[in-house]
Amino acid sequence: MKLEQHQTQGAPTVKDRVVVRVPASTANLGPGFDSLGMALSLFSWVDLRPSTPEEGTTVTLLGDQVEGVATDKTNLVYVVAQEVFARAGVKLPELHITLRSDIPLTRGLGSSASAIVGALFAANELIGSPFTVDELFQMATAEENHPDNVGASLFGGIIAAAWDGTRAEAVRLNPPEALEALVVIPEFELSTKKARTILPQQLSLKDAVFNVSHSSLLTAALATGRLDLLRHAMRDKLHQPYRASLVPGMDAILRDAADHGALGAVLSGAGPTLLLLADSGSSDREEMVRFVTDAMAAEGISVTTQWLLPWPHGPEAVVLDSDDPKFELELSELLPVPAAAEVVR
Ligand SMILES: Nc1ncnc2c1ncn2[C@@H]1O[C@H](COP(=O)(O)OP(=O)(O)O)[C@@H](O)[C@H]1O
Ligand SMILES: N[C@@H](CCOP(=O)(O)O)C(=O)O
Hints:
Blueprint: E1 17-27, E2 36-50, E3 58-62, H1 76-88, E4 95-101, H2 111-126, H3 133-144, H4 147-155, E5 158-163, E6 168-173, E7 179-186, H5 192-197, H6 205-224, H7 230-233, H8 240-243, H9 250-256, E8 264-267, E9 274-279, H10 285-297, E10 303-308, E11 316-320, H11 331-334
Parallel strand pairs: 3-4
Antiparallel strand pairs: 1-2, 1-11, 2-4, 2-5, 5-6, 7-9, 7-10, 8-9
Bound molecules: adenosine-5'-diphosphate (ADP) and the ligand N[C@@H](CCOP(=O)(O)O)C(=O)O.
The site of ligand LJ64HWYM has 17 residues, from helix 4 and helix 5.
């Protein structure tokens, strides 16, 4: 990411500790490839404290969803935090980093985006917030190379975004009150990088028009609460047909989910997770779970299913001085997993 030196007004006040909780995201929502995204009630945490040359940099991993994450200075959170410091003209080469994630890695639920947004937000807060949320959005988009996941994690709710390679713009929508999400998480990983390399570099005009029109219809349907249109609007010709070969069972689930209680079904981000949307007032939740579990079992794929809610908020942060009585609390004591009732849209 090309950095310009950001002139801060005088030396920044470096805080003693910042903890940030960031929501997961489901990107694309079908036709909105690299454009539409929705934050979900699943979270990761980033905890930063300045360290010293003697103590060096440490990376502590909490929970069972961060297995395999780098614990040295190649860690994504460390790398992104250093980019913030460099841009602000601040030197903080050594950090104590603690990470927790309830977002399965490399499954299409925006774990990398949550790490990028968490690192940007926490690093910015650690040095006195020299950057605006829009500046953080630009940095996040340049780092992830698409604005959908990072926009959803940064702004919360549903976002419609566009990036021309230089400037990213996004509009946030409040999710429809009745919307619920069933995520179907296969046991295998699928890196976003791999799922992007499989995509064609060219599309027919017919398929391009199909996606532009369905993405527009989907955005308007979500903005106006027309959940009845989702089955039609959530179709895609740009990426899902080419990624289906990487996710056994996907074709059948996307084709038939609406006949088994769902409003519609799509690949979550670059997969392999599948996303089924439901209407809390009318969808047959049990039938939805039975249908997807049977469909994936027929392909010999073991899955975890989880009901989530659209999450309306972006990152939440706690900034602490070392003399604060709460200073030594564990990160998820400072920012616990919110109860579903807290989902106030
Ligand atoms: N909490 C985290 N801290 C550091 N790195 C992370 C974290 N979460 C994800 N990552 C990085 O992001 C990679 C997964 O990114 P990606 O393939 O885009 O999958 P996803 O669909 O989860 O975004 C992980 O292999 C890891 O390198
Ligand atoms: N638009 C991207 C979204 C990737 O989302 P992720 O959660 O899989 O990282 C794509 O489809 O490649």
